[in-house]
Amino acid sequence: MSRALRNAGRPGIAAGAVSAVDTAPWDLEARLLDMPLVRLLGAARVPRCTAAVARPRTTTPGSQV
What we know:
Elements (H helix, E strand, L loop, with lengths): L12 H20 L4 H4 L25
């Protein structure tokens, strides 16, 4: 399908239609097997990790809060 739409302009409605037709069978199979699509496609489970948050300083050095 992608080759047929090459000169029709990939971005936009045509690309969305190709994506929907490509994804639909996988989604249907995942629903029939009652499992998340990501698991059906074989994504590895990533262990949880902590994230650091950096915040800008809200006061200037030497000022009182």
